[in-house]
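Summary for the funding panel

The consortium committed to producing paired sequence-structure records for every protein in the target list. Below we show the first two records in order, beginning with the earlier of the two.
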Amino acid sequence: MRKKSILALAFVFFLCLGLPVASADAPIHVGENPPADWQDRSLLRLIVFKLTPCDGMLLQCGGESMMIDSGTRKFADVLEKALRDLGYGDSEDGHVHMPILFNTHPHDDHLQGFLRMVQNGMTADMFITSFRPTYRNEMHQQALKEFSARGIQIHHLEQNEEMTLGGAHLRFFWWSEGNDPNELSCCLRIEFGSASLLLTGDAVGMAQHGLLEQVPHEWLKADILKSPHHSYTVMVKDFLNAVAPQYVFSSNTLYYAQPTKSQAEKHNAQFGTSSGGRIVMETDGNEWYIWQYKGTV
């Protein structure tokens, strides 16, 4: 289902000058049944696909959608099928149409899936990246060339840029002094009512330290945190303290994510990994409900 009008109606980009940020205090319910009228409410939903150990997520709010990273090319077919099953198939040719593609950084386990799906016929309105057009990275340059040739608008983010998606408020930021793509990973803080989550790409330890120095700590605070860098390394203690999450999730297997799981539990946060199946997180802006669908991409 195409949503070309989303560009005219939903995208208002502007630089942040200090808007208030709600506190992260929305209760989290894991594996519980929501109220009977839950689906009648205005909801924000994050779907974390089972692309172990890669990242690939779908953000939905108010009838608007954004894909966040896409795994490697080997996941392109199963990811496209999952998106088609969720209603994103184009009735004209059967290919998926996704209004927005957002890439946290140009490594193959985050960007290659987008590239392959577009080459296979997927369409999109806009590709969002914090990496400059001149950034010297082969996959980044290939994606920009391919997407532009297929009529996908390219938007290069400014530091601390904000946008809206449905009723959700999104803020993009990264450690400006990073050197490699991981250190330069673009973080995304999503706020909906009093609910919030923080997606960190592959922001490794140096980036986490840098963010603590560069970013107001209220921008980091969130109910839900995506474990940085697939949980291959433990999180910086002060960074975790600043986020103060109630729930932490990883895209990796528990074998690699066990140290992160232990960190989360020491902070009284619940932990989940999408390696066992798709994770779905929903909030009405007041509380979260989280479910996992075992074995489902």
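The next record, for a separate protein in the list, is shown here:
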Amino acid sequence: MIKLIVDSTAYIPKEFVEENDIKVVPLRVLYLDKEFEEGLPGTFDDFFASFTQTKIFPKTSQPSPEEFIKVYNEIIDAGNEAIVFTISSSLSGTYSVANLSKNDCKDPDKISVIDSMSTGQNIWGYCMEVIDKVKEGWNREEIIKYIQSLQVNSQICFVPDSLEYLKKGGRIGKVSATIGSLLQIKPILTFRQGTLLCAKRIFGSAKAITDLIAMVPKKVKRLFAIHIANTKHFDALFEKMKEAFPDIKIYEGELGPVVASHIGPAIGVCYIC
């Protein structure tokens, strides 16, 4: 049987994780002198209540090789094989750790590690696709090639509440952040195949929501409305997405402390085509 392993930045809901026996290897977060494992969606409220007030950036760290090896061996001992998805290698060293760790497990040939070249709900969507293909009888090699074909047309698009976090993270300059705050300029940022880009700059939140939805292709396989810190604009985005795509199931996705450390509170869309 093919099993799934993800790191915690997949942000898959607990119910889905348990129903599909997915193993989650957590990244760690250092915030206000306390270190903790990043949990699953629904456990982030206390962190965000503090984070959105202090604007202190957390530090994050990747899992240890031992954590991956332990999970690999558990799956191998049960007579199974595994596909592993990690956060993009352009954002974290987690992929490298996961890939190197398989060399020290009991049977490396049973483990396939995929650089998602993304994060968050793109990984959740890939897991949905793997589960469907396993039920159809596909083997691991066939599934991996299929996922790689989906990665080309998968994307996360998001609008941060503030440019302050991007400024502190060194992704935009201080002047740009100040001007953006004064003029209420909202950047639409895209993350696709491991590359973060500013797709466009617009004025105001209402226009941002309209433009976010317009970026989603009409022929979409998996669609997610996503948020960080349950920002006040999320409900409006979700409702407009349901109006724009009445025949597609839209999943709600919450991103946690690791991704928040890069962009702060935000809303967005995530899709797989």
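Regarding this second record: The longest strand covers residues 195-203. The chain is about 40% helix and 25% strand.
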